[in-house]
Structure formats: C-alpha cells, structure tokens
Amino acid sequence: MSSAESSTSTNSGGRPSGDTTSSRRRSFDETYRAVADVEGWMTRAQAGRLWDAASRLRAGARIVEIGSFRGRSAIVLASAAPPGVAITTIDPHGGNDRGPQEIEGFEEAAATDHVVFWENLRAAGVDDRIDHLRLGSQEALSHYQGQVDLLYIDGAHRLAPARADIVAWGARVAPGGTMLIHDSFSSVGVTGAIVAELVFGGRFAYRGRSGSLAEYQRVPLDPARRMRNALRQAVELPWFVRNVVVKALIVARLGRLTRLLGSDGTWPY
C-alpha cells in the first residue's frame, strides 16, 4: 500500500542504472516463495487471484498497479503476465500511506522503500518488465496514455483518494477488462469509495473476493443486473463490520478479544 495522493519527483522507468536482469517465467508456487520475504500485505489466496488475472492476458495487453510499496504484488503480476504484456507500477514512495496505521510521518523511510522496491524486483528477475512512475496516482494520469486491461488498486486507503482512483483510473479500464481493489470490505475509506462508486454503478460487475482483494470486470449493466450486482456486494457488509471491530480492538490493545470473531489478532486484510 502506498500513497495515491501525495507525490515526489517523477521517476518514469525508475530502474537504477546498470540493471540488466532478464525475467523468466516461473510457476505460481515458485513466485509465491520468491515473495515470501518481501514486505507487504498480500495473502496466498490474494496472490493467486492477481496471478490468475494477469495470466489470462495476451501479448499487447497492459497492466497498471497503483501502490507498490516494496514490490510484493508487482512481482506476482510481472511473473504471471505473458511476454508482451506491458506493466506500469505507480507509487511515489513518499513516506506516507505505507500500510496499516502508517498514514504519515515515514518520510525518512521513503528513499529506502524505493531502493528496496527495485532490489526486490531484481532479485525476483522481473525488473526488466516494470515501468515505474514515482508519482501519486492522480498525477500519473497525465503520464500514462491509453487504456488498461488489468488495473490493481492498492493506493491511499482514505475515502477521497480511494474514490479518485476508482473513478479516474477505472475509466481507463478497457471494456471487458479487470479491476482489482485491495482492502475492499475491510478499510473504511476503500469500502466507502466502493459503495459510492461501484455498488450501485453500471460499469463494473462484482466477481468476488479473496480476503479483502475484490475483483470487478468492466461490463455494461442494465437495471436488473445492477440490482443483482448491488446485492452481491451488500452481502459482504457483515464481513466489513467484523473487520472494523477487529481493527478497533487491536488499536485498543484488546487483540485477544478478536479471537471471538475468528481472528488471530493480526490486522485484517
């Protein structure tokens, strides 16, 4: 997770000089082992959903990731995507919106996050597949031309920036394309953005979730399908309430009580 709002200097491409690593195709199991030590918030099931979405693409397709942090999800996407698929990652690495309860005040970690991001891509052998924009997601809109076949949103999780990503970058998703949103029905801001833009919207059909990673497909929805689509998402709201309660208990240092809700006491994602 990283900022979709604040930006630092542009770093299109972003690859440190001298990198000549060539990527190779590997299996999902190999890839998941490769990201085991990469910091980030992504379960095996979520990695599998990212993998499946990227592997369905054909040469000439385009992937955009908003919020890269240290490269965990980018490695999965780049490892799964067939040759000829263009991959752009967007993250200002500005020291804010880094992860749970890390909204601001981590400016000293910004440069390290960016360096480690590239080190992790190189170690996984996928750095040559990534074009990185070191920008906030809204600023990056003017630096990216054309449509997107697979959009992965894991940027700033507050309501306004999360909603802006869904609206502005969602408009770039090609007909039939996929939009994946992390921390859906878990983060208050992200869930609010989904309710505002997707639950009753007519452009994206809800295809399910893996944990908090929700999948949508851009297809036109007539009134009847819109109602069914809204109901499918409304069913997830009790899980959202459960996650909010778990987070509140963790913040209140009552993590042991989360077991009553089926949690192991860790931040839900």
User: How far is the first residue's CA from the last residue's CA?
Assistant: 11 Å
Sheet with the most strands: spatial strand order: 3-2-1-4-5-7-6
Number of strands: 7
**Which spans have pLDDT < 50 for at least 5 consecutive residues?**
1-13, 16-23
- The share of residues in extended strands comes to 15-25%
Report the order of strands and helices: HHEHEHEHEHEHEEHH
Q: Which architecture of the largest domain per CATH?
A: 3-Layer(aba) Sandwich
Given the structure, what is the number of helices?
9
Arithmetic mean of pLDDT: 87
Can you give a write-up of this model?
There is one protein chain. The protein has 269 residues and is α/β, with parallel strands linked by helices. The protein has 2 domains: 28-235, 3-Layer(aba) Sandwich (Rossmann fold), CATH 3.40.50; 239-269. It has helices at residues 28-34, 44-55, 72-80, 110-124, 137-140, 159-170, 188-199, 223-234, 237-251, and strands at 62-66, 86-90, 130-133, 148-153, 173-181, 204-210, 213-218. The protein has a 7-stranded mixed beta sheet, sandwiched between helices. Helix 1 runs antiparallel to helix 3 (72-80), helix 2 (44-55) packs parallel to helix 3 and helix 6 runs parallel beside helix 7 (188-199). The longest helix has 15 residues, at 110-124. It is globular.
